[in-house]
Design goal:
This protein is of the alpha/beta class and 416 residues long. Helix content is 29%, strand content 27%. The site of pyridoxal-5'-phosphate has 18 residues, from α10. Pyridoxal-5'-phosphate binds next to α10.
């Protein structure tokens, strides 16, 4: 039976991931557990590859969405590059064997150490977000006797119509350089001796469910590219960032990589530049779930609470963005009550769902929080001194623990 979530479906009343019953995995490794479908990730990668196959395109996986080394290994096997935002992510990416020549590095606050590490690794592009960053990068590159490849991140001032916390291309945002100020940055980059100016970058936001803002952004960028060309600046790459939305409700129909390609390729082609895309959520999001066990049930008059063993420290999105995640029992049951599904953390904001129609569950039963493969584990913390969850990768009828559950000793490691 379909759940609306691809590789997760019910068979004989049991929720499966690929060919394995989710509850079996949960019983073997305990809860909370993040379960990822390898096929789910590869299917999405292949959609991107196919959608952009007729145009020279580098697909750089946005590591922050799910940085587990085994997930990065899949990206590597599929020939993807990486979009990184920290030295820690660069370290992971190199460990996973991803080609540095397909690595792009964004972020408004790269430290000297991080800039140095990126230059030494020989990454494809620093996506530079300010004039000061450009100058410091030039001087650090000079000190180590190498050139740094640079794209300028511009802020096309388009509204991606998503949650304000994940809108990154509006004028008031801290990201990128405004369009009016951008030419100055390009001319400076062209002049600086240790900078190799290669491209233009933008990333307008995340969980974008309509491709028209991409079209608008790329049109503004193409205009700037042609203006720069007239001024003698020739680029090689146009990087349109990530941000494509995914399905959080079974009935959602987010745009696919094909829709994205259709919206932007005509304009990109006119520039003649090679394309870089940086998908994160749209590769890993729908391919993962978070499974938790019901600890207690509690009724306060009309109000029902289902208290489970996964909280905001495991999945921050509901608390941070008021995000909706679909929740279903691992044993199929029709919804029959309305309840708040909450975690054990001592915060009122610690919920997975509010006023949700759900089956009447018993203590010890399991729930699956859908579309938790991106910005799930990667935003997890040890708040309330809770060990972080175990992560599992399913491949057909087999599963592998790709990150062990933390222990109490792990939590205090490094403390005095
Ligand atoms: C976060 C981020 C991405 C990925 O965004 P998704 O919504 O996960 O696709 C891509 N590029 C940059 C610069 C980012 O900061």
């Amino acid at each position: 039976m379909e759940t609306g979530f691809g590789n997760f479906y019910y068979k004989d009343g049991q929720l499966y991931c690929e060919e394995l019953p989710v509850e079996e995995i949960a019983k073997q490794v305990g809860t909370p557990v993040y379960i990822y479908s390898k096929k789910g990730i590869k299917d999405k990668i292949n959609q991107y590859k196919d959608a952009f196959k007729d145009y020279p395109t580098i697909i750089s996986y946005a590591v922050k969405s799910n940085p587990n080394l085994s997930i990065l290994k899949i990206a590597k096997e599929e020939g993807l590059g990486a979009d990184i935002v920290s030295g820690g992510e660069l370290y992971r990416v190199l460990k996973a064997g991803i080609d540095p020549n397909k690595v792009v590095y964004a972020g408004v606050g790269k430290t000297d150490r991080e800039l140095k590490e990126g230059i030494e690794a020989g990454i494809l592009s620093f996506n530079v977000e300010s004039i000061m960053e450009l100058e410091i990068l030039n001087s650090i590159a000079g000190q180590i006797g190498k050139k740094a490849n640079v794209s300028i991140r511009v802020n096309p001032d388009v509204n991606p119509k998503t949650h304000p916390y994940i809108s990154t291309g509006l004028k008031k945002s801290k990201f990128g350089i405004d369009m009016e100020d951008a030419p100055e940055a390009f001319h400076l980059a062209e002049k600086l001796p240790n900078i190799n100016l290669i491209g233009i970058h933008s990333h307008i936001g995340s969980q974008i469910t309509d491709v028209s803002p991409y079209k608008e952004a790329v049109e503004k960028i193409a205009e700037l590219v042609s203006k720069l060309e007239k001024e003698g600046i020739k680029l090689q790459y146009i990087d349109v960032g990530g941000g494509l939305g995914i399905k959080y409700k079974p009935e959602d129909t987010p745009p696919t990589p094909y829709h994205l390609a259709e919206a932007i390729l005509p304009t990109v082609k006119q520039t003649g530049l090679k394309l870089i895309v940086e998908p994160g959520r749209s590769l890993t999001g729908e391919a993962g779930i978070l499974v938790a066990q019901v600890i207690f049930l509690k009724d306060k008059g009309e109000k029902h609470f289902i208290i489970v063993d996964a909280g905001m420290n495991d999945l921050l999105r509901p608390a941070m963005y008021q995000a909706y995640h679909h929740i279903i029992p691992t044993k199929h049951k029709q919804p029959s009550i309305k309840a708040d599904i909450v975690g054990p953390i001592c915060e009122t904001g610690d919920f997975l769902a509010l006023d949700r129609e759900i089956a009447n569950l018993n203590r010890g039963e399991y729930i699956a929080v859908m579309s938790a493969g991106a910005y799930g584990f990667s935003m997890a913390s040890n708040y309330n001194s809770r060990p972080r969850a175990v992560e599992v990768l399913v491949d057909g009828d087999r599963f592998t623990v790709i990150r062990k559950r933390e222990t109490y000793e792990d939590i205090i490691k490094g403390e005095v």
